[in-house]
Write a structure and sequence with these properties.
The chain has helices at about 15-25, 65-80, 90-95, 120-125, 185-190, 190-210, 210-215, 220-244, and strands spanning about 1-5, 25-30, 45-50, 85, 100-115, 135-145, 150-155, 160-165, 170-175. The protein is about 40% helix and about 30% strand. The protein has 8 helices and 9 strands. It is of the alpha/beta class and about 240 residues long. The chain has one domain: Rossmann fold (3-Layer(aba) Sandwich). A 9-stranded mixed sheet has the order 2-1-3-4-9-8-7-5-6. Helix 1 crosses helix 8 and helix 2 crosses helix 3.
Length: about 240
């Protein structure tokens, strides 16, 4: 299987998914869009994974590459009908590219937070085996306000009503991060935009302790990432078998 990864910040990469993919012998090609990376021909890939970043979906005048990225997402999801996983900004880009609405939150959501699966989420194959409530890691100041036509909301919490979605039977968006590693918090704290939202959400004292707060939960996040990766590969295998 060949995986195409869109990144918007060097330190916001697939994280623990990379180890999982390597162990399974998967190949992946990363395009660093914020550094001028070019989107390759999509037909050569089986799965598109779109990561987070400090940009907002409406900033096409500042980040002109967003136009081409959204066009690629539309073609991948709507025209080619191939599996898609968007995380944080990648979740929001899926919605925006296909006709939903994303806007700023009243207050950023940063740190540990529980999300509850909806009835649709409890039946969804991507989230199978994760239980009705899961702990997540959050770092976002924008959110999906209105889902795209035809999408289902799979998870929610009081801070953000649309934490996970599915479009059709092949495209998923997760607002939260399951891919984090021991380096994630320190890497992201060094990004000025992220530092601002961190301190706004938690205050200076709690913000200074975030790394220590998250560390005991990393093993659980890795287990969750593995389950999601296993489930996603099963979905992909089923679709490839049906296409033969």
């Amino acid at each position: 299987m060949r995986i195409l990864v869109f990144q918007h910040l060097a330190v916001e990469h697939p994280g623990s998914f990379r180890d999982l993919w390597q162990a399974k012998g998967q190949e992946w090609h990363t395009v660093e869009l914020d550094e001028g990376g070019s989107i390759p021909a999509l037909d050569a890939f089986d799965l598109l994974v779109v990561m987070g970043g400090p940009q907002d979906v409406w900033q096409e005048d500042i980040h002109t590459w967003l136009v081409a990225e959204k066009a690629a997402i539309r073609r991948w999801v709507r025209d080619l009908g191939r599996p898609y996983l968007g995380i944080c900004l990648g979740h929001q880009l899926l919605v925006d590219a296909l006709g939903g609405r994303v806007a700023l939150m009243d207050r950023p959501e940063v740190g540990l937070a529980d999300v509850e699966l909806t009835p649709e989420g409890l039946r969804d194959p991507l989230l199978s085996g994760l239980g009705g409530t899961m702990q997540t890691f959050q770092w976002h100041g924008a959110e999906v306000k209105e889902v795209l036509p035809g999408a289902l909301v799979l998870a929610r919490n009081p801070a953000c009503a649309i934490q996970a979605i599915r479009y059709g039977d092949h495209a998923y968006g997760l607002q939260y991060h399951v891919e984090i590693t021991p380096e994630t918090v320190s890497d992201w704290e060094a990004v000025p935009a992220y530092r601002t939202s961190l301190e706004q959400a938690l205050g200076l004292e709690k913000a200074s302790r975030l790394n220590a707060t998250v560390a005991p939960h990393l093993a659980t996040f890795r287990t969750t990432a593995k389950r999601i990766d296993d489930n996603l590969l099963t979905i992909l295998a089923d679709r490839l078998a049906a296409a033969r």
